[in-house]
Design goal:
Elements lengths: L2 H15 L10 E2 L11 E13 L12 E14 L3 E4 L2 E4 L1 H25 L2 E15 L4 E14 L2
Parallel strand pairs: 1-2
Antiparallel strand pairs: 2-3, 3-7, 4-5, 6-7
Length: about 160
């Protein structure tokens, strides 16, 4: 697994799992949105990483390579007036933000077994969920789900 492959895996699988308010356009990206972007929007950004050699006693089914942990922020951005119908229920503003955060969490839990078996991911952990203060100037609500993805970096 390489970083570019991991970035694409996360974004592509979230795009394929979450209901798209802009169908058929993309709305999940590997960067923060510009202010003139279309909302709602989800951004996936790498915030930190650590790399260590596999050590004695680490039981992950392999003996060579490096253990890599990468932290990502998955930000859900919603304009105050954004509304979208999901499964017959209309969500607006903070309710829409929170619904998408729940859907992101559900998607990550559902994708975890597939990523472990098909994509050689060792683990996916949800390490934080934070609600950001309303950006009054730009009328944006935001919620951040932070995950840690661990995989083997093979030389």
């Amino acid at each position: 697994m390489r970083l570019v492959e991991l970035n694409s895996l996360i974004v592509d699988d979230l795009r394929g799992t979450l209901p798209n308010p802009h169908s058929p356009s993309n709305w999940i990206y590997l960067d923060y949105p510009r202010l003139d972007a279309t909302f709602p929007r989800i951004s996936v950004t790498q915030i930190s990483a650590s790399i260590s050699e596999l050590g004695i006693g680490e039981n992950i089914g392999q003996t060579t390579g490096r253990l890599v942990s990468i932290d990502y922020d998955i930000d859900i951005w919603i304009k105050i007036s954004d509304r979208f119908i999901i499964n017959g229920t209309t969500y607006v503003g903070t309710a829409l933000r929170d619904k998408y955060a729940d859907l992101v969490l559900e998607a990550l839990e559902a994708l975890k077994p597939q990523w472990k078996t098909e994509d050689d991911i060792v683990d996916v952990e949800i390490t934080n969920i934070a609600t950001e203060a309303l950006d009054e100037e730009n009328e944006l609500h935001r919620k951040t789900v932070t995950i840690r993805v661990t995989f083997i970096w093979e030389d």
